[in-house]
Amino acid sequence: MVTPAPPTGWDFSPGDSIRDEVWSRFGSPVHFSSHFSRSPFRLVVDVPRSSFRLTSSSVALALRAAIGGSPSDLQVDPLIDRSFTFVVCSKKVGLWIYSLRSFSCKDFSVRFFLWKNGGPDWRREWDLWQAEQDNEWTIVKRRYSSGNRSQHLIKASSVFDRLK
Questions:
Q1: How far is CA 35 from CA 27, 40, 90, 112, in A?
Q2: What is the reported pTM?
Q3: Is 30 left (phi over 0), alpha (psi -120 to 50) or beta?
């Protein structure tokens, strides 16, 4: 894979710091190497914002700037839209990178997810969001003298919700 030149002014020092931290914590590189691990660990990266065209090569270079590692050895592959998979050296390294959650700079931002059943668990995320939305509403019932009942949905707001 040919790695394109980075846009002018990219700072690779955050990736170098992560690479050094991985080496001191786990004694291995960020990217997969058969000398350090028997099997790679796959993660998903989402790129919600970028100032460049998203390709496997450009995302690999962005990952190099964010978490270190060799762009070609991260084995970046497209998933869907702005999501890509990549591999790291081991499960320990992968879970530690996942715990970082995200990286952002002036040219791009990335978010890290665990690989599950072919990609991020979008269905679970949607269900959690739906439940959160449903919890914001309360059913109010009124009784009329004639025995008819009507139901109205009103937005329930709490002081604690507004503090978020």
A1: 11, 11, 11, 25
A2: 0.66
A3: alpha
